[in-house]
Amino acid sequence: MATKTYIGLSLGTDNSVIAIINKEHGAEVIANEDGEHKTPTYIAFSGDEEYHGSQAKHQLVRNAESTLQGFVGMLGTEYSAELAAAHQGYARVEDGPRGAEFVVATESGEVRLTAHEATVRYLGRLRTTAEAYLGRTIEGAVLGVPMSRTSAQRAAIAQACAEAGLPLLQLVDEPVAAAMQYGVGQTARDETVLVVDVGGSGADVAVVVSTGGLVTVAGSAHTSEVSGKHLDMVLAKHFAGEFQKQGGPDVLEQTHGKPMRKLLQAVEVTKRTLSAAPTAPCAVESLAGGMDYNGTITRTRFDILANKAYAPLEAAIEQALEAAGYSTEQIDQVLLCGGAARVRKLQTRVALMFPESTQVRSEGELDEVVASGCAAQASLLAQSAEPAQAAVSAQVLNAPVGLRVSSERMEPVLLKNTPLPAKRTVKVVLPAGETRAYIAVSEGESVPKAEVDEDEDEDEESADEDDEEPPRYRPSRLLAEMILELDEATDATRVEVSFFVGTDGKLTVTATEPVSGKTITAEIPASN
Length: 528
Prior knowledge:
By secondary structure, the protein is of the alpha+beta class. It is 28% helix and 34% strand. It contains 13 helices and 27 strands. The protein has helices at 54-58, 71-74, 81-86, 115-134, 151-163, 174-181, 228-245, 258-274, 299-305, 311-324, 344-351, 369-383, 449-461; strands at residues 6-11, 15-21, 27-29, 39-40, 42-46, 49-52, 67-69, 92-96, 99-106, 109-114, 140-145, 168-173, 191-198, 203-211, 214-223, 279-288, 291-298, 333-337, 359-361, 401-406, 409-414, 422-429, 436-446, 473-485, 494-501, 507-513, 518-524. Strands 1, 2, 3, 4, 11 and 12 form a six-stranded mixed sheet that branches. A five-stranded mixed sheet has the order 15-14-13-18-19, sandwiched between helices. Helix 4 (115-134) crosses helix 5 (151-163) and helix 6 packs across helix 12. It is elongated and about 90 Å long. Mean pLDDT is 89; it is low at 387-393.
């Protein structure tokens, strides 16, 4: 039987990568027309010509007002003044009759493209690139999407793929794809890993749990305050200052000016070089005022300059761990991906947050990890006799559920993002002499870390108070109250409370006293 031609695709805000699993069963990244593994997510117009990828990005220096960038991130969103402001320095974004539209002037007249139309054109070019490389028609694609993408954005991506002639097999959460590429879920051993993905426009952190071969996301966090662009700006400001010391004009005066765009493209190469070498050059021909610029920077100097830039990433890691209900000691591995994760100091800062026994992995080309993981999933689908489904993620619990202890404390039994169906039983100790057990079932939410820290400070000041830890979860919605009538409880009396959530989302809670066999059950339908 002929092998189906399925590809893996990482459709990034700044760059995209296509991969396949080759005959040697390894991931192979497909090179574009320019021989590059990364294809910038850009579209540009010059005269009546339309350019994509690297050729479009090269237009940015002299033709920024006709260059489209960021359209993938705009999918499924409405126009706003903030959205238009975020695209300053590129083709302008206006509120048109079809929503947010990119507006470009060409020799043949004005071109107006929605984010959807731009994405369809770009995906069509990626498809033809892959088909030209492989010499055959693409029959299906597995596409990675960030955890932060909404349902509307995911639906918009699927629709764009359909219109671009790219058959979409599955949308895979990027942390799951990265974990698959690192081999998570391919053994019988259960493990918990943290995926740290630092890309060009932001960073995503996710706690990924592998149980019995099923890989799911237990908690995640996103920050747009640390990215490849932030690190580029650190270098650009440094070299702009050095250029000014040499008698050149201040290129920082115009954030979106031509000299600044030249410098930002140059420092991308400098940053990449510093990941592999202790020193890297920066050279820009005719940077400003007719003057060339040539400079160097050491990795140590870059680390000092960028030291404050990593704090938002550390905060996102803490947020993801808190959302998942895990501590750093419970993480077996930290998996790095995304081009900006190559920066050595960033890797060091992440590693210092975990015990020495936790392995921090940064293997291969980090900006190709997600695409390669998607290709691995596509390869599995190609071998399967079952038709591919529209999504790879298992159905999961939308919010933690557990036992309501007080109005400010809930003990979680099943955490958010637990794969369904799920069942867990806990034992409740009753005070001696009790003749009834009161069980309050609640949906909950995690307590923000700032509030937990504040509570801990107050506890330290009150030495005569109980040593009870501050709550990590608090009830947000009471689901059921149950009273189990019992014989008089002794010190050995335990009530077993079983939580079961089916794939339909219905929660069944059963409280049982094993000795007497007395039991009570409550059923809570799925919430919308």
